[in-house]
Design a protein that fits this description.
The protein is an alpha/beta fold. 35% of the residues lie in helices and 19% in strands. The chain has 15 helices and 13 strands. The chain has an 11-stranded mixed sheet with strand order 1-2-3-7-4-8-9-10-13-12-11, sandwiched between helices. The chain is globular and about 60 Å long.
């Protein structure tokens, strides 16, 4: 009986032009039945590799967590989540400590349910990109030393095209992209690729509706101006260092700064002391400086709980976990890490600004929201405000507080073509610090409704 139903389902998809029996078979191979240490769940999840370049043997790893059955996943949109770095894992951060339904306990072996998971609102697709990040891999070692923005966007697009063939039920579904930090580059660049390749297509398979980014690297000039201003106004650096940073760094590339800028940033790091720059008012984890692992300008790390990154490193290295995720096929010669030092350390092309892409996609009428946690000193809200201001957009609703349970939860400003939202008390990873408020934010984005103005 089960086989009969499967073939009937398969025939229906093939007849309607939505897929084939072969792709459904590949989908079934990716189904996760239960992860080690997992509590009971009421949603389906899948994971595996999708080849994006046959010649070099590049394959990207994904984890799909669908909406619960009671919330009708078949009618929910699909959200692709990307983390930045460059070189950091969306599975470790976005899925396992921010918006995903399953988070890792401090024992590094068991999982607990996230009551504010975004999969209550959308089907969530987490992608480890580029190859060399997390479980994603390449058979061409030189790839690891030559990744940059352009190839990452192309590989991510190739992933989507191939993934939709494996999951034909998601073809033509409302599709959004979200991310944070250096995904402030990934998200708009991938969005632009999808938009441009959808042109002239009557019913595009990727039914792209818009994107949302948080504490996002956007424009190097304005990011530097706003970041140094944040450091200075929050008492993190001296007057003299503030002036040195302005002179040495502003106008340069944040990924490839000149030596004078690197020296000034090192002095600023010393002056800031042992704080978590991703969440300046919360306790850092352990005794290692938050800056140590990422060098001159650290774009990504866990915040509060400050040690969540450590739990991910333990959990995703367990052989039984890798087997359950269908990730053990890679036989990686190195341990799984939250961030790849090689990929991030040898990053090549990194455009100075995403603002031209914003202008193109705003003109195209896509939904674009930008949000900022206000206790992040790495890509602070001042940097984002300067970048948005540089777009010279018309204001539709001026700066106003938004509320949650009668309390101010942040502020918002609505422009013609873009909505900006801040979240009070949140660091670099907004959903980690303020999970409930982040959930409300995402719901408002999907519904395309302004943040709640009333305190009642």
């Amino acid at each position: 009986m089960a086989n009969s139903l499967f073939f009937l389902f398969c025939f229906t998809f093939t007849f309607l032009g939505l897929g084939s029996c072969g792709s459904l078979s590949d989908q079934e191979k990716d189904k996760i039945f239960k992860l080690p240490g997992q509590p009971p769940v009421d949603f389906n999840q899948y994971s595996g590799h999708v080849t994006v370049n046959q010649e070099s043997g590049r394959a990207l790893f994904y984890w799909l967590t669908e909406s619960p059955a009671t919330r009708h996943p078949e009618s929910r949109p699909l959200l692709l989540w990307l983390n930045g770095g460059p070189g950091c894992s969306s599975v470790a951060y976005g899925a396992a400590e921010e918006i995903g339904p399953l988070h890792i306990n401090s024992d590094g072996k068991t999982l607990f349910t996230n009551p504010n998971s975004w999969n209550k609102l959308a089907n969530l697709l987490f992608l480890e990109s580029p190859a060399g990040v997390g479980y994603s891999y390449t058979n061409t070692t030189s790839d690891l030393y030559t990744f940059g923005d352009a190839r990452t966007a192309e590989d991510s697009y190739a992933f989507l095209v191939n993934w939709f063939e494996r999951f034909p039920q998601y073809k033509y579904r409302d599709f959004y992209i979200a991310g944070e930090s250096y995904a402030g580059h990934y998200v708009p660049q991938l969005s632009q690729l999808i938009y441009e390749r959808n042109k002239g297509v009557k019913n595009p398979v990727i039914n792209f509706k818009g994107f949302m980014v948080g504490n996002a690297v956007t424009d190097d000039y304005n990011d530097y101006v706003g970041t140094f201003e944040y450091w200075w106004t929050h008492g993190l650096i001296s007057d003299s260092t503030y002036k040195s940073l302005q002179k040495a760094c502003e106008g340069s590339s944040s990924e490839h700064p000149p030596i004078e800028c690197t020296s000034a940033l090192s002095i600023a790091e010393i002056e800031q002391g042992r704080i978590d720059p991703y969440s300046i008012y919360t306790k850092p984890c352990g005794i290692t400086s938050s800056f140590k692992r990422r060098g001159h300008y650290p774009w990504m790390r866990g915040a509060y709980d400050p040690c969540t990154e450590n739990y991910a490193n333990q959990y995703f290295n367990l052989p039984e976990v890798q087997e359950a995720f269908h990730a053990n096929i890679t036989k990686l010669s190195y341990p799984w890490k939250t961030c790849s030092d090689i990929v991030g350390g040898y990053w090549t092309d990194s455009p100075l600004s995403m603002l031209p892409i914003y202008k193109e996609l705003i003109a195209a009428g896509l939904r674009i929201w930008v949000f900022s946690g206000d206790t992040d000193s790495v890509v602070p809200l001042t940097a984002t405000r300067y970048s948005i201001d540089a777009l010279n957009l018309t204001t539709l609703a001026n700066w106003y507080p938004w509320y949650d349970n009668g309390k101010v939860a942040g502020w918002s400003q609505i422009y013609n073509g873009l909505t900006f939202v801040t979240v009070t008390g949140a660091g670099h990873e907004v959903p980690l610090h303020r999970p409930r408020q982040a959930f409300i934010l995402f719901r408002s984005f999907l519904e395309n409704k302004a943040m709640e103005r009333s305190s009642m």
